[in-house]
Amino acid sequence: MTDGNIAAGTLVLLRHGQTVWSQTGQYTGRTDIPLTAQGEQQARDAGERLRARLPEGFESDYVFCSPLARARRTAELAGFPDYRECPDIMEWNYGLAEGRSPKQIDELLGHHWDLMEDGVSKLPSSFAGDWTDRLPDGTEICVHNHGGESIEDIAERARKVVERVDPMIREGHNVLLVAHGHILRMLATQWLGVEPIVANQLRLGTAAFSLFGVYKGRRVLRNWNL
Questions:
Q1: In this structure, are residues 100 and 143 in contact, taking their beta carbons and an 8 Å threshold?
Q2: Closest listed residue to residue 150, CA positions, set 180, 118, 125
Q3: What global pTM score does this model have?
Q4: What percent of the chain is modeled with pLDDT above 90?
Q5: Nearest to residue 42, comparing CAs of 22, 12, 67, 68?
């Protein structure tokens, strides 16, 4: 792809494969749960699709991954083991919503609550505390319900990442970010320069990827949710 006389690279956002909680719809921020067997296969398949779309691939200095295990495992299975960990693309810290599904939260509150429109600060302090969830294979997961990020907090993290990778793309490098649903949707808004709340209208499946670039000097979306 060219931008004037300059060859521009491609920014790829790859979501991790399926987890038990992505199946159930539970908010999975900093809880470090593994991929399911299906999620591992999704990661392998995503790597094949991505190499077919971008056969030139990625130099190792331009592959970045969230430190959380589900993202790291996805990067490895997709064929990109030589990644650089990037804490700024960790998932939204859901705080008081962590480990609960939207339906569970609505039932506990007695009314509808929306993560992006209402924020975790509107959840009651009674949601705070640590508890244990048991996965289908018997693994016990400690869930930590405290604090959390606002939509402005996660958008600021996303802007920092955009500012970091923008010159790489303009210099002609392909850049791969392997991370999570909400942070990747927020990265999309910040790459495009639209309001963070627009992320609420973007759907991104497990192990799906999206392509962004630069056209006539402007940051653009090329393909979404492939």
A1: no
A2: 118
A3: 0.95
A4: 97
A5: 22
